[in-house]
Amino acid sequence: MSREFERHPGGEHAIRILSINDEAVADETMQRLVVHNIGKGGFRFECECELQLEDRVKVLLSFPDGYQQEVLGRICYSDELENNLTAYGFSVISGFYSMSHTLA
Asked: Nearest CA to 63 among 29, 16, 104, 9?
């Protein structure tokens, strides 16, 4: 399977979930979640939260260089992991970010 966008392994990127389906999130456990496998079209992240496929999620994406940007996306897949964690696929709807920040 080929990717439409360049990918980066992530690990130094983080998100904070701001809202789910237009409802604000105040849960402190979602303050900083590590991002994996990031690209212009989306990324993967892991958390203990329960999200549903097609949920619309707004996040504050933090880059290694300190830059932050709000991004709206949808949950496109989920994989149950160990230790009550679930990995989610986040597909960008709006707020496309620059790969120059990703690769900094």
From this structure: 104
Where would I find the beta strands (DSSP E) of 1-104? 7-20, 23-24, 33-39, 42-47, 56-62, 68-80, 86-94
Residue 2: DSSP 8-state: -
**What tens digit of pLDDT does each residue of 36-87 get?**
888 888 999 999 889 999 999 999 998 888 889 999 999 999 999 988 899 9
Q: Are 38 and 14 contacting, i.e. CB atoms less than 8 angstroms apart?
A: no
- The CATH architecture to which 7-102 belongs is Beta Barrel (2.40)
C-alpha to C-alpha distance for 78 and 102, rounded to whole angstroms: 23
CB burial of residue 99 (10 Å; 0-12, 13-18, 19+):
middle
pTM of the model: 0.79
**DSSP three-state, residue 102:** helix
- For the chain, give every domain's residue range: 7-102
